[in-house]
Design a protein that fits this description.
The chain has nine helices and four strands, in the order ααβαβαααβαβαα. It is mainly alpha-helical and 206 residues long. It folds into two domains: 40-88, no CATH class; 90-202, no CATH class. The strands form two sheets. A two-stranded parallel sheet has the order 1-2. Strands 3-4 form a two-stranded antiparallel ribbon. Strand 1, helix 3 and strand 2 form a beta-alpha-beta unit. The longest helix has 24 residues, at 3-26. The radius of gyration is 25 Å and the shape is globular. The model has no long low-confidence stretch (mean pLDDT 78).
Length: 206
């Protein structure tokens, strides 16, 4: 390529980049109105008034609500087992969000299995990535290989697809999480759902 043509090509690329940048500045995402902060504490899940609690604001009433929920789970498990509660323990696993914390939780669970004293959890819950891990933790050690795969083999491309130009055209994000949805669909198969249902029938809760 001649030097003059190369210079023109560089200039054209610079102009195009500048036009994209300017057009991006002119794009506005749809406005969203946040609810008043005063209503945050008043929000409830219909039919589950005690399901939403602030962990750092456990009043006596809320502690009592948590105790009632656990007691209900215990009663259901005792009925499912068909025997009195003597010797029946309630093991609760709660996992936080955040990618690194998810990797820690997965490593903890698989290491716990190898240690030989991992319990069968009565209740399993989680937030964000913790919620993604929860079904595998609930299903038991047979699903440790799935956790290892998720946190040792998955790459960015397995969970998100960058869409820079779509964002410049007004999309609400620069990434599409369809790859993550595909992974969840593949991992949360009929066998896993059946295992979770089996645990539910035994009085355990996810």
């Amino acid at each position: 390529m001649r030097r003059g043509a190369l210079v023109h090509l560089r200039r054209a690329a610079t102009v195009i980049a500048a036009l994209i940048a300017v057009s991006a500045c002119a794009i506005r995402a749809p406005e969203r109105t946040a609810p008043p902060a005063a209503l945050y504490d008043a929000a409830i899940i219909p039919g589950l008034p005690d399901a939403r609690l602030w962990g750092d604001d456990l009043t006596e009433a809320r502690r009592a609500a948590v105790a009632r929920n656990l007691a209900e789970v215990e009663r259901g498990r005792w009925l499912a087992l068909g025997r009195p509660p003597q010797g029946v323990t309630t093991d609760v696993l709660a996992m936080s969000g955040g990618g690194p914390d998810g990797a820690f939780a997965a490593g903890l669970l698989t290491g716990w299995t190898e240690a030989g004293d991992r319990p069968e959890f009565t209740v399993v819950t989680g937030v964000s990535v913790g919620a993604l891990i929860a079904p595998f933790a609930f299903a038991g050690p047979d699903y440790d290989p799935a956790l290892r795969k998720i946190f040792t083999e998955f790459d960015t491309a397995d969970v998100a697809e960058l869409r820079i130009f779509a964002a410049l055209r007004g999309a609400l994000g620069v990434a599409d999480t369809q790859p993550l949805r595909n992974q969840i669909r593949a991992l949360a198969d009929a066998a896993l759902i059946a295992r979770v249902a089996e645990g539910h029938r035994a009085g355990r809760r996810l």
